[in-house]
Structure formats: structure tokens, C-alpha cells
Amino acid sequence: MTVSFSLELPTHRVEAVEEFVTAEAIAEIAKTAEASGFAAVHVTDHPAPDAKWLDHGGHHALDPFVALAFAAAATTEVKLLTNVYIAAYRNPFLGAKSIQSLATLSNGRLILGTAAGYLKPEFKALGIDFDSRGALLDEALDVLEKVLTGADIAYEGTSFAGRGVRFRPLPTTPLKVWVGGNSKPAIRRAVSRAQGWAPFNTFGYAAASRTAEISTVDELEVAIDWAKQYAAEIGRTAPLDICFSAGNLLDDNKSADERHATIARLGAAGVTWLTFVPPGADRAEVIEHSRAFAKEFIVA
């Protein structure tokens, strides 16, 4: 199976703002991704990260829709992936408006990767009940699905009630939604109501991210088999995109042959997308590594 690749826009690199967190930087790196053959660029979502998490390996993030809008304006074809957007952080109608806006202005290039979330202090800072995050994600997906039909909708959620809500304009291309996470509930949600599933390599921090451990290809294959079994149980016949955040499995410290073998094995298991995080001390190095990776691993 052919695997597509998404390049991370390093907007979390706030230690070098001029290199990575400017309109120029986003545009240049997104253009590089498009020209090099990456199928998408992606960012993540952390509106209120806490200091303890940041001081122990966490990271900052721009608003994903703003960052991806700048990437969209600089490109014409590359997809725009939220990897991942935490829907529970926002009122579902407000979130749907951001999604609709970017999907419309980018001519349908948005892929909405979303998940329940795991950073408890961030939920608290935003006034959101952490223990309700799964149900809140389901509400957000319900609202999004309904408003994008174009019909006037009514929806009563746990903390909101909409009557006769109408969205215009509608995106001209059907929106792809991927659900992220390694847990059984995340897999069930992805298989039952989304076009894709986005597991990620926990490489030792599954407990911190409050999800199941997937740090080896063996563990991912077991999870994919479970997803296929669940799809058969519920009668799903549509193909399921699987976007794996491979992390250290594709690190530069591995040989090209090792990485080729890993990519081939992941594709054989059913992975259709892989994310790539380009290393580099500055923008020039990030761009150089991105081009080199694309030349070596992306099939034209």
C-alpha cells in the first residue's frame, strides 16, 4: 500500500520565533512540503498549556486554524491537517465555524484530525470537564456533521442549545475527519463515525498521554487488527485511512534501509499516512532535512 506523508510545521519552536513562528516561516516550509511531494502539512492544538507540562517536554502551539490558514494562502495543493484538534476545548458551533472557514477558503484541503485530549490542566484552564471529554468530542462531531449538510439544525448539548442554526457557504469538497488516540474507545469512534484513525507512537509516555501504549510496529499491528475486527462487527465496508505519528521509528539515527523497511511494513499493515517531524537547528536545516527525506522516501 502506498503511504502518503505529512510534514509538521514547527510552529511549536518558540525558542527561535524568527526561524519558525512567523508568516514567512510557515509559508516557506509549507511551499517546501508541497514542492517536495508531501501530501499534507500539519500542526497541533494547545491553547492553554501549563508550565509543569511545558517544563517536562511539552510544547506551545499556535491556533491550528490560523496557522494552517497561512499555509493554505502560500500553497495550492498540499492538504492541511490538524494533528490533532481538541474539539472539547471549544463550543461545537464555534469549532465548526473555524473548520468550515478553513475548508472553504482552502478549496477543500482541510483534513480534520481530532481527539478527546489528555492534558488535564489545560481542560481546567479552559473551564471544560476533563472526565466528559469523550462525550464532548461526540457532541462536536454530531454538530459538525449536521451543520455541514446545509440544513437548519437544532441541537441540545450538555452546556449549549442551538435552534435553526445555518452555515454558509458549505465546503465544496466533503470534509475528511480522522479520530486520534490509541485506546479502544478512540478506535471505536474512528471506525464507527470517521474516515480515518490517527494512532501515535507513545515511545514511553503512554501514561502521561492517558492512552494505550503503541511504541512498536508489533503493537500497532495488533491495534490495526483490532480496528479491522471492530469494523467487521459493525458492518463497516468503507476504507479507513490510518495516519500514524511514527515518532522515533523514522528518526535520523536509523539507516535509510531500516526506515524503508519500517515504512513498507507499516504500509502492509494498513497505514496510509505517516507524519514526519523534520529536525534542524534553524529553518534552512529543517527545509534541507525535509527535502532529503522526501527525495529518499516519497514515491513521485
From TrEMBL:
- UniProt keyword terms in alphabetical order: Flavoprotein, FMN, Monooxygenase, Oxidoreductase
Q: Which domain of life is it from?
A: Bacteria
Ranges of residues in domain Luciferase-like: 21-254
Kindly give the InterPro entries that the UniProt entry links to this protein: Lucif-like_OxRdtase_Rv2161c, Luciferase-like_dom, Luciferase-like_sf, SsuD_RutA_monooxygenase
According to the UniProt entry, its GO molecular function terms are: alkanesulfonate monooxygenase activity
Enzyme category, top tier: oxidoreductase
Q: Which Pfam families does the UniProt record give?
A: Bac_luciferase
Entry annotated with the keyword Flavoprotein: yes
- Enzyme Commission (EC) number: 1.-.-.-
**GO annotation, biological process:** alkanesulfonate catabolic process
What name has this protein been given in UniProt? TIGR03619 family F420-dependent LLM class oxidoreductase
* Organism encoding this protein: Mycobacterium vicinigordonae
